[in-house]
Amino acid sequence: MGVSFGWGPAEARALAPGAACVVVVDVLSFTTAVGVAVERGTAVYPYRWRDGTAAAYARERDAVLAVGRREATGEHPWSLSPAALRAAPVPPRLVLPSPNGSTIAAEAAGGGATVVAAGERWPDGSLRPALEDLLGAGAVLAALRAAGGRSLTPEATAAATLWDATDDPAAALHGCDSGRELYAYGCRRDVEVAAETDASAVVPVLVDGAFQEAP
């Protein structure tokens, strides 16, 4: 019933079988965008490919195909929740105090939890660890550590410690490689929204193929 941490799809596949809940972190900007959409009452169907099949997938579900920059994700067979700095979703059967004194809760079957930092890609397709996702994962893990009741793996502990030791996470997001890249694209506002902390109490969870607000 512990909490683990890993990077990218390969570690997600390796760690997920032992977890009742998988929290995926892609701060710039997939999980932030999902959180903003869900808190406005929108169900989000993730789809891996950005080609003609995406439009067909949307039509099959009577959905509107989103127009975005480049974010995509696949479907997963376990309970899945996206995390961002705006609201750190909570693994199963845990209620965490947020900095403003409110609480955020999500329910799932018993078992451990895994927090996965999505990262970026190098030109050859290999994983590029991304600071913003490490900080986002660290925020979730630090909250779990503070709540007590579950052990963190050494990797999860290290991510939580980095979050606690970061004096200005917003400045880190604006200054990191991904943040500067979005600035170059003219998407400064994306970074500003992603850098908001404790701005939402909505917990998006993947249910029947769509991210929607947890009960």
Key attributes of the depicted protein:
two-stranded antiparallel sheet; four-stranded parallel beta sheet; alpha/beta; globular; putative 2-phosphosulfolactate phosphatase; 8 helices; 20% strand; 215 residues; 36% helix
What would you say this structure looks like, in words?
The protein is of the alpha/beta class and 215 residues long. The chain has one domain (3-213): ComB-like (putative 2-phosphosulfolactate phosphatase), CATH 3.90.1560. 36% of the residues lie in helices and 20% in strands. It is built from 8 helices and 10 strands. It has helices spanning 8-15, 30-39, 52-60, 131-147, 154-165, 169-175, 177-184, 188-194; strands at 3-7, 19-25, 79-83, 94-97, 103-106, 112-117, 120-121, 127-128, 204-207, 210-213. The chain has a 4-stranded parallel β-sheet with strand order 1-6-2-3, with helices on both faces. A two-stranded antiparallel ribbon has the order 4-5. It has a two-stranded antiparallel ribbon with strand order 7-8. A hairpin with a 5-residue loop joins strand 7 (120-121) and strand 8. Helix 6 (169-175) packs across helix 7. The two termini are 22 Å apart.
Brief synopsis:
This protein is of the alpha/beta class and 215 residues long. Helix content is 36%, strand content 20%.
Summarize the topology:
Elements: E1 3-7, H1 8-15, E2 19-25, H2 30-39, H3 52-60, E3 79-83, E4 94-97, E5 103-106, E6 112-117, E7 120-121, E8 127-128, H4 131-147, H5 154-165, H6 169-175, H7 177-184, H8 188-194, E9 204-207, E10 210-213
Parallel strand pairs: 1-6, 2-3, 2-6
Antiparallel strand pairs: 4-5, 7-8, 9-10
Helix pairs in contact: 4-5, 6-7
